[in-house]
């Protein structure tokens, strides 16, 4: 059975009739009285109810967000109802829209020698504030356009006499060294006088309306999948853009409500940094040409609506086709803004990467008329048609889509067999704000079809269950952590009420913060659920921006729950647990669970949170847990013991066969820290690439504190190893520890060291080593004073290896006896397996390990 479930979970197998028939038969045998009903009160874009329909179940898909509801009604109701005929008309409509768009927009999007450019390349500009300068600086943060066989780069030159800055795109077989950028860290560097206008002044210019834009290049495809070429702009490119701007001004003067004056969420600097630079409305995110193109496409959508009506199709069919086409267009809008960008690999990047709208100095304007490439209508429609075709096998009527508040469900008690939902991830994703990018255009495309969905300027914000510290200043009311837990408890209580006494639930969550997990788990238990298991399932992209050198989850944790009820549906409230029994059972359960996870390749933050299910099964089986004096144990207190048990068990696994108690607290913490940020593919046996200087390894401070506490380590005593700033804690790279390791008076990390280039980082620790040598009056055979701990001595050895001090390393290991300590080699072996494959520290520790045999150890 488990094998069948595993195979059927693969998308390719899930559409095969043999598997679908087998699944349907299994469901019918398990539920002889009728199809089971699944409830998902946070449906989003419908993955869970869609999979329920694939299995032959019935489901209720609910959400508050209008954009999500449009997706749900299209994929789970309209497509199953109208089937192949709807897909056919969507395909015909896509051709109609592409043809009309080319006819009406081609004068504004010129070709290059008969080929459609994929994108035009832009740079924002500010005025240099250097004495007597005043040059207009094009802000270019990346100078390499393509690194493949056809290399392309940007050369920027300033003329001191004319104060003019030229931007040239060059192509060739080798990218020259020393290419200079003009933007970095929010600052602007003038190519004319060399003056740096700091980021605060850049913001001031932007907010005063003095940040402009400059078109400097374009990317053109050689052929289908044959690479790209890059060119400087032509006079025709500039004239075409000027025509588009004038045309847009004319359109707006006609009185049409086409410009986007809806408020941009500029109060929230976490995810919407563009708001710091004068972006105040959603319309400010688009250039005049982009707005003209989308407005024109909207008019074409309306014309195709008339075509369908003339053909005699019923209203709900027309509504389904036009909504589907509108969603396809809206799904490409994030390539049609001034916050999109061009990667050196050549693809236009969706600006929502990392769950935010980040400010872009240099941006890429996708060509909506280009075929095959991201950003074009052709690509958008093909992608949507593929999604539609995958839903054709869903049975009509199997899913009911409802606009609902998860805290107040319009459903009877005990009606659902399964409560399966993927609620908001605390403070990670500003769901409603991001959806507004699509909402403002969908309102213009199809607002008359859905007056209930588009009655407001923007999507509802106050009702969403998220943590947003800026909500009050933006008029959204209370969205504090306490209110999140309170509202989530209400939502889960409603799920509990609707779920049958013998039903089962699954709650999906992904967050690397302990506070978020504590809030969610408290809501689950307070709602009357028992947690019976938790499973990490790969649903997150490992290459996404948030996953780089931090404890971002590679999986979503699926928490399995059941109602804590009697057979008659009444809540069990008299099961009292003994705190001593719970604490005795906890380490045994963690010890059983973690090796199993490791065997499946689940490590790091994924493994930590995957242990919550087994741990909470012990705690949540009771209505309350009491100490010997009758005091009730809180979930927060229990979770402290869970984090500690997990940390101790992980450490035993890292140093398998070694006596963990023999390592000092800095070694225990370092090993556990690196293990926590690992993903199972970072170690020395995996991955390739050029070694880079590490800038440290980041954890949320509270998570770091709990890990340290569980290991008996004290962060306040380890300032030479861990840097704490605000809510973040950073394990320092070995290179930054060199002043402390080589006997300088201060153990503090030099200011500004973090974030420098590889060469600068290496020079930093080399300088510390050479200074120590000079102070000691010794030559290159200098040998440092032996570090206080095993970790210190290992780090000293690594730096000696990195600096090429082979003789000093030999004397340190052999003559001083450092290498005779077995803990030294055990720790080195462990860290070799834990360091990311492409950091210098991995190469250095391996270099030390390579000396072991030759030195006689």
Shape: globular
What percentage of residues falls in helices of 4 or more residues? 40-55%
Please compute the radius of gyration using only Cα atoms. Answer: 30 Å
The count of helical stretches stands at 25
- Total beta strands: 25
Reported for the largest beta sheet, the result is: 7 strands, mixed
Q: Report the end-to-end length measured between terminal Cα atoms.
A: 51 Å
Specify the structural class.
alpha+beta
Which segments are poorly predicted (pLDDT under 50) over 5 or more consecutive residues? 541-553, 680-692, 745-763, 775-781
Strand order in space, largest sheet: 16-2-1-17-18-20-19
What average pLDDT do the residues reach? 86
The proportion of residues in beta strands is 15-25%
Protein model, in words:
By secondary structure, the protein is an alpha+beta fold. Among the domains are: 1-34; 664-854, no CATH class. It contains 25 helices and 25 strands. A hairpin with a 6-residue loop joins strand 9 (187-189) and strand 10 (196-197). Helix 22 crosses helix 25. Residues 541-553, 680-692, 745-763 and 775-781 have low confidence and may be disordered.
